[in-house]
Amino acid sequence: MPNAVYIGGFQCSPAKALPPHLEDFVQSSGEHGVILMSLGTFVNELPQDLQDGIAAAFAKLPQKVIWKHKGSRPTTLGNNTLLVDWIPQNDLLGHPKTRLFMAHGGTNGIQEAIYHGVPVVGVPVFFDQYDNLLRLEERGGAKILTLSKVDEDSILTHVQEVLSNQSYRENMQRLSRLHRDQPSL
């Protein structure tokens, strides 16, 4: 709307307690933590070969994965991956065991990742997602993986780089401090 001004991050808030089934899954991750995967509300299904590549990559990781996924079950799904129709995204991003957010780069998800200081592997699909992720990548908090290059190897490479290079988390923590900064009253 022409008279509306976007206020980034207004939906961000401290994390609330997770539902028991999600909390149990997250706690079972041990020291490796959890990866959160969501391609937003518009992408409900991926081609079978693409989702099988994603699932195969996740299966090779020591982290547990919570994947917001609708559609057919990937044939290469590992025991470390939980498929769910809906996720309390802000609450999962705010959980201390969340290590990485694999996301499409929508504005709200990016703002929540910044608020909670969680690094991102971005897979932009459409709209402003690539631009959002590019801005985050330039600030050292994300790595972009284009949809045309998504396969098992590229996912493993990007995810392992972001998880093993502490600068991504440090940069997101710095952005989180800036995002949460409030003037003293």
TrEMBL record:
Keywords, alphabetical: Glycosyltransferase, Transferase
Gene Ontology CC terms: membrane
Annotated EC: 2.4.1.17
Domain of life of the organism encoding this protein: Eukaryota
A Pfam family of this chain: UDPGT
Signal sequence coordinates: none
Cross-referenced Gene3D superfamilies: Glycogen Phosphorylase B
Subcellular localization(s) per the UniProt record: Membrane
Catalyzed chemical reaction(s): glucuronate acceptor + UDP-alpha-D-glucuronate = acceptor beta-D-glucuronoside + UDP + H(+)
Chief localisation class: membrane
Topological relation to the membrane, as annotated: Single-pass membrane protein
UniProt key word Glycosyltransferase: yes
Enzyme class: transferase
GO MF annotation: an example: glucuronosyltransferase activity
Cited InterPro entries: UDP-glycosyltransferase (IPR050271), UDP_glucos_trans (IPR002213), UDP_glycos_trans_CS (IPR035595)
Similarity field: Belongs to the UDP-glycosyltransferase family.
Name this polypeptide is given: UDP-glucuronosyltransferase
Highest classification ranks of the organism: Eukaryota, Metazoa, Chordata, Craniata, Vertebrata
